[in-house]
Every structure is written in C-alpha cells, then in structure tokens.
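Target protein
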Amino acid sequence: MGKIKIRYFVCKHGRGGRGTYFYWQPSADLQREGWRTRRLSDQLERAIAEAQQFNRQVDEWRQDRDVLPNQPDTLPWLTKLYRIDDRFTSLSAASKRSYDQSLIAIEAWSERAGDPPLSSIKRKHVKLFYRAMLEKTPAKANAVIRVLRLLLACAIDEGYLDENPASKPRMKGRPPRQQRWTEESIQAFCATAQVADRASLQLAVLLGACLGQRQGDILRMTWQQYDGQQVTLRQGKTGVLIAVPAMAELKLFLDEALQKRRKQLLGEFDETVSRNLKVDRVDTRMAVKASPILIAETTSKPYKVDHFRHEFRRIANAAGLNDLQFLDLRRSAVVRLAEAGCTVPQIAAITGHQLDRTLRILETYLPRNTEMARAAIHTLESYRNRTKLETD
C-alpha cells in the first residue's frame, strides 16, 4: 500500500501481519484541546472519508475559535460556541446540514433585533418569532424552534441562562404524510429507471422497499455488507446493527450488479497489468468488497446526496410519482410487512425501528380494510377448526 498523505491518518499493522487498521490520530496540541484518537473503518475508502470528515471538523473548530466575539452574551456568539460543541460535532453530516439552516435563520432573527443579550430573550419573543415563520413555512418554523430550544439549553449548561424561553414551545403539529409506495408504484419507478438506463436508481428503490432503511445508509452500503444471502448494516443514525435476508427479487438485482462491478474492476486490473504496474489481483477483489453498491451511471462514482436526490426526483416524476419521496419507502416497508402478517418485533428486526415507534407507524398508516378483516376471520376459523380436531 502506497503512502497516504492525509492529515492525522495513521495505518497500523496487526501483530504478525494480521490485517491493517486505520486511525485518525490528532496532534498533541489537539489532544490537549480534547480531541481523541479515533478508530476508523477497516475499509480503506470509508476510513479515508471518515478521516477527512474529522479534519473538516478540526478546521471548523479552529476557524470558529478564532472568530468568537469577545462578549459571550448574544445569539451569534452562542451559535458559534454550539458549532464547536460535542452536541453539534457528534451529529451526522445530514443532521449538521439541517441544523445549520436553522442556525442561520436564528442568527438572522437576532441581527434584525440588534443582537440583544441572551438574558433579554423572553418567551413572548420566541412565540412571535415562531408565529412569523409559521404562516409561510410551517415545517421550517418547527425545525428552527427545535434547534433554538437546543441552542438555549446549551446556554443554560454553559451558565449564561437560568431558564429556557424556548422550552415546550407548543408547536403546531403537521399531519403525517399519507403517501405510500405500493407494488404498482415500485414497478412503475423501476420500469422508468430501466428505460432511462439508471439501474442504480432501480436497485436503490428495491433496497429501500425490501430493507426499509434510510437513504443515507443505503447510499453508504458496500459489497462487503452483502454475502450473497443477506444484507448486514449498522444504521448511521441509531447505531443499530441489523441483518436482513435478501428477498428473491432483490437478490437477483444485487447478484447482477455485483457481477457487473467485478467485471468493471477486473477490467481496470487487466489494463493496469498491461501497463506493467504492480497490482495484486487480491487487492482488486478487496476493492470490489470496499466498493459502494450504488454507483452513478453519469459519473461512475458513488452518489453524492444532492446528485442522488436530483436523479431520483427526475425518474420519479417521469414515472408519474410526483407525490412520492424516497423517505416514504421506509415507512411503506413497515406497512407492507404488517399487511403480510408480520408481527411488530419481526418488523422492527428488519427496519431497526424501536417497538413503540413501529407501533406508532402502524397505528397511523396501516389501513383497516375489508381484506384484513377477512384475513383475521380466516385465521380465527382456522384456529377453531384446528382446536376442535385436536379435542375430538
């Protein structure tokens, strides 16, 4: 392995040559500031990405530390403090982007008021701020107030406030999304993706429908997580480890995509060998395992979130599925499993939801229709007939 020049990226070999392990190891100065050595993924590509993410956090921390205002009593100062706090830095990249949008809105609110001291912010001010946003952008209003509550809780923890004026804000609840992916809509999307030569998007929707996982976890999946029979992953948001057998339809597409990826990388191997470069075929096989499952046809690289969102929307609209989003697949998977007769614990074992969360989803979205009533009566009659035969 050639030398990888990434700040604080360290490769260590196990005893007796048993594998290579990757670490993000900050300098002594950073360690005195509280930064700790982190064990990275055993997959080289993911380890590099994780190290680069830690480096970006260090850069943001250094920049924010240098520009903090002298007077620690305003919302702009508090947002900068919050951005270098573990409560923010430990969030996922997607959550950080979402929180940043709310923090920008909070800073703009403070600027319009002349950046008053934190102690002068009262509950009535928070309520007025919320109502001003609620009329035009209710979803954004709720998100901003949630972040404001966390931000002011940070101020309490740091000793700058005694009480939180944004606690229990009595936000207006939004009706849950009723959109569901049916078998027909899934087939319509897959057919449109196939015509548009976007097999990766077809596979992404099948993964979402069959596994019930979040978009971010699906985009990060590598071939090492598929053993030919089941998919194993640790959810990025909750840390829950799940292993789900691949349905026959999904297995067919995964096997086909895996064969295609192997041919592609082995072709690159043969081309490298023809140029008399030293590359081990074992390294190529390892590269297949480390490769993400979903590769964009337009770039031949893993999808970035915005690129995937754009391409998905284009295919969905072309299929006439304008009201469906990728995130609806996770909820739809729960309902489909329940309609098939799966129990709540069985559903949670597949999707990784907590049991109470699974129940809430079913309570909201599972239709109570005639087909389900017939199935229930059929189950009851089968039980009674079986019991009667055993008694006789």
The first strand starts at residue 9 and ends at 13. Confidence is low (pLDDT under 50) at residues 272-279. Residues 1-66 form one domain. The beta strands are 9-13, 20-24, 38-39, 230-234, 241-245.
